[in-house]
Write a structure and sequence with these properties.
The protein is of the alpha/beta class. Helix 6 packs parallel to helix 14 and helix 7 runs parallel beside helix 13. The chain is built from 19 helices and 16 strands. The strands form four sheets. The chain has an eight-stranded mixed β-sheet with strand order 5-4-8-1-9-10-2-11, sandwiched between helices. Strands 13-14-15-16 form a four-stranded antiparallel β-sheet, with helices on one face. The termini are far apart. It folds into three domains: 279 residues, Alkaline Phosphatase, subunit A, CATH 3.40.720; 98 residues, no CATH class; 90 residues, 2-Layer Sandwich (Arylsulfatase, C-terminal domain), CATH 3.30.1120.10.
């Protein structure tokens, strides 16, 4: 071959290589990470919900994989989000509760995506920090945010957008996809809902629809906690005793005040009762809520004085479910809007969609609302992943996975090397159906926020598919063991049962090993206790 021909061949090969390289770079997947706030797995129909149908979220299960044993490392909002962002436990990233500061020196996974050629964006509720790191474009709610006419923090300053928050966050996310979804660079977008965080304010049409519904009660609504330790008995999240008539059930302040002594124990809460979302509404928006609010308050005024405690509990449960599930219904509708756009635009073929919550939530089980405990309703979280061409539609995975794993999973999906100090494990083997490459048998949990709202005692523990061992500490020294297979509702602590002593011994040793693995320790517990007490 002559020199000229060789030169042409070299140039041709170079062009082919460059072209192939460009195509290889372009096939990196887009990632949309959807997270709601306090969305219980019991309120998703693909998880077997008896309360609500969620057809759009169910699409992700039908077209991807559902994790039945997904859980969190610390069941409270800001710490959960910090764990997701860093891939590290609370005691490492510094965000042990909603009060402690996040260690801003920590590297977050959006930063790593940004450094590796991804466009990054965040819309919705972050919960802490006003300037998220590693995000090219963001509009985030300050703190908890508002359901109606929400204010957003942006790089250019604060702005208020009129409308219902779930719709608005979706509008912002869809606008981003329309502007940035078709470029050569892949994107990683975090689509973060405020709903269904307390106090629950559905959109007016959902308020009307769900206020007319009646929902089945959980078997443990009137749990007496006889089979548990002092932590369950002393927690302050009982629907009858601690759910507020004004703040939660939407009884007007003037009616509570009018009832006076007859309204005990609700009078003390009157001073702290607020209708933040309603008060942000325009007159036109308030008018849409008024007919249902009137019917709720008229019923309360007529019946409450003669209700027994059991009847009050049942009434509060129904009011809770009507509002909570009304918020969920809007999330599902809006997830449907986003999935439809991915289909219509052609983005669905190369876009991974992940749906989760920052933790689970009690929907009347054990008579409770809220979260915090290592018990399943708050410990477990929904996790559904659709990865086109990789995950098999309709798959269900029961391995123990955790929000600690999300960062490393998304990085591996994008073929980006995760930092060595991340503490989770990538879920990609499970997503690809390669269970043989998955080695974890147990997860570690640690909750810190006590004494504080809801008064759930500090505890840490280990959870396997078969058992759950928890140590409650600080003002008590109590252990609880639950047989997850024989006692799925976790009603009977078998820690002292002679038949389980070998299990106790084995799990205590495994728990100690996990504490060492994740660099947690009694000394660190005491350090955080001392710092926490100094804040009070």
């Amino acid at each position: 071959m002559g020199y000229a021909m060789k030169s042409i061949a070299i140039v041709f090969i170079g062009l082919v290589f460059f072209s192939c390289k460009s195509k290889i770079e372009k096939v990196k997947p887009n990632i949309i990470f959807i997270m709601s706030d306090d969305h219980a797995y019991q309120a998703i129909s693909s998880y077997g919900s008896q309360l609500i149908e969620t057809p759009h979220i169910d699409r992700l299960a039908n077209e991807g994989i559902l994790f039945s044993n997904a859980c969190v490392a610390n069941s409270i909002c800001a710490p959960s989000r910090a764990t997701i962002l860093t891939g590290k436990h609370s005691h490492i990233n510094g965000k042990i509760d909603n009060r402690f500061p996040f260690d801003t020196n920590q590297i977050t996974f959006p930063q790593i995506f940004q450094d590796n050629g991804y466009k990054t964006a965040m819309f919705g509720k972050l919960h802490f920090g006003n300037n998220p790191k590693g995000v090219d474009e963001f509009m985030i709610l300050p703190g908890q945010g508002s359901y109606i006419n929400p204010r957003f923090i942006t790089p250019e300053g604060d702005t208020v957008i009129n409308g219902y928050v779930t719709d608005v966050i979706t509008d912002l996310s869809l606008d981003y996809l329309k502007r940035e979804g078709g470029g050569d660079e892949p994107f990683m977008m975090m689509y973060l809902h405020k709903a269904p965080h307390r106090p629950w304010w559905p959109r007016p049409d959902k308020f009307r629809e769900f206020a007319a519904k009646t929902f089945p009660e959980p078997e443990t609504l009137f749990d007496d906690y006889k089979g548990r330790g002092s932590a369950a008995r002393s927690a302050e999240m009982n629907l009858l005793k601690h759910m507020m008539y004004g703040h939660d059930s939407k009884i007007r302040p003037e009616l509570i005040a009018e009832m006076g002594d007859k309204a005990q124990p609700i009078v003390p809460e009157f001073k702290n009762s607020f209708w933040g979302a309603y008060n942000r509404s325009t007159d036109e928006q308030k008018a849409q809520y008024e007919p249902v609010l009137d019917s709720i308050n008229d019923y309360f005024a007529a019946h409450w004085p003669n209700m027994t405690d059991e009847e009050k509990m049942k009434w509060k449960y129904q009011r809770y479910m009507q509002d909570y599930l009304g918020c969920i219904s809007s999330i599902d509708d809006n997830v449907g809007r986003l999935l439809d756009y991915l289909d219509e635009s052609g983005l669905a073929e190369n876009t991974i969609v992940i749906y989760t919550s920052d933790q689970g939530f009690y929907l009347g089980e054990h008579g409770w609302f809220d979260k915090r405990f290592i018990y399943d309703e708050s410990f477990k979280t929904p996790l559904l992943v659709r990865w086109p061409g990789v995950t098999k539609g309709g798959s269900v995975e029961n391995e123990m996975v955790q929000n600690l794993d999300f960062a490393q999973t998304m990085l591996e999906m994008a073929e980006i090397q995760a930092p060595d100090d991340m503490q989770g494990e990538s879920l990609t083997p499970l997503l690809k159906g390669d269970k043989d490459s998955w080695t974890r048998e147990a997860v570690y949990y640690h909750y810190y926020e006590y004494p504080a709202v809801h008064m759930v005692k500090r505890h840490y523990g280990i959870v396997t598919k078969d058992f759950k061992l928890a140590h409650f500490y600080y003002d008590v020294d109590e252990w609880e063991l639950y047989d997850r297979l024989k006692d799925p509702k976790e009603l009977n602590n078998v820690f002292h049962d002679p038949d389980y002593q070998e299990t106790v011994k084995s799990l205590k040793q495994q728990l100690l090993e996990l504490r060492v693995l994740y660099k947690d320790s009694p000394e660190l517990d005491q350090k955080f206790i001392s710092k926490y007490e100094s804040l009070n």
